[in-house]
Design goal:
The structure is a homodimer. By secondary structure, chain A is mostly helical. Chain A has one domain: Winged helix-like DNA-binding domain superfamily/Winged helix DNA-binding domain (Arc Repressor Mutant, subunit A). Helix content of chain A is 50%, strand content 10%. The first copy, chain A, has five helices and three strands. In chain A, strands 1-3-2 form a three-stranded antiparallel beta sheet. In chain A, a hairpin with a 7-residue loop joins β2 and β3. In chain A, α1 crosses α4 and α2 crosses α3. The relative contact order of chain A is 0.12. The interface between A and B is large, with 55 and 55 residues. The structure holds a DNA duplex.
Chain lengths: 134, 134
DNA sequence: CCATATATATGTTAATTACATATATAAGAT
DNA sequence: ATCTTATATATGTAATTAACATATATATGG
């Protein structure tokens, strides 16, 4: 099936853009962390909901490390199994700034679109040419 | 290869979220149009860049029609080959309003994230603990 | 020694993006 | 006549992301 929609009627209910990559970079820019910490703390960022999707975290971290945007070292202190402590690199910070720029551009487009889309309600209630109601 | 990135260094340069579906629904809410018109006019919306990607338009239109959000009729008037004229349905308008809501939620998260991410520049220039410069 | 919390990692499917190309009709130029 | 161009719709496919499920391993507490 090709849904990702909700009510079986084809209506929109849940496409998401989580921006996992810039979110992780930002958290690591604040301070070095390990994967599990990122997984639990990212939702607090208010931007990504990665709870129950640890795959997104660890795959992204490995991708970032392959490209030199973060580095990791094993941390055997503390309780529980060994953890990788990830640290952002200078290249990673540059990359995060690129993300910031492109997200700002993105915001401009989104704001413009929302302003247009706001007209729907107005017209819908004031001028019902179509003859159907919601 | 797994890039989609720019400089061969793994840095961000181009992930896009075009929101083709709500954009098409909005254009059809303004007035009935045919596919080619959508393809050429959508970039003016400032949100999607679908020039050179007609596939996105026609596949989305068929998907929308399958789910009853738009209907089409052949238009043989005018010059050139016959064209399908697409019209949004009441269900499509409801769907567009769902999109509007979720995009507004999305905007809130994006704004919050951008506010945080703005701190990068400040800290980078004022307090260079790391010892490297950009 | 068993359940639980911590921690990392892999696998799979679906959806979207991005790009390329195929098909067909009509108008205008040579 | 036919060649090029503009119009118009449609299909194919690879790459990326999202979404979900599951596997592996270590330490702690009962």
């Amino acid at each position: 099936m090709q849904e990702g929609f909700g009510h079986g009627c084809g209506c929109h209910a849940g496409r998401k853009t989580r921006w996992v990559e810039p979110s992780i970079l930002y958290m690591l820019w604040e301070q070095p962390r390990h994967g599990y910490e990122l997984m639990t703390d990212l939702p607090e960022l208010g931007f990504v909901a990665t709870q129950g999707d640890p795959g997104a975290i660890y795959r992204t971290l490995r991708h970032l490390e392959e490209n030199g945007l973060v580095v990791s070292q094993w941390d055997t202190s503390g309780t529980g199994p060994a953890k990788r402590l990830y640290t952002i690199t200078p290249l990673g910070i540059e990359n995060l700034q690129l993300w910031a720029e492109s997200l700002r551009q993105y915001k401009l487009a989104l704001d413009a679109f929302l302003e247009k889309i706001d007209k729907i309600h107005q017209k819908q209630w004031s001028n019902d040419e179509t003859g159907y109601t919601l």
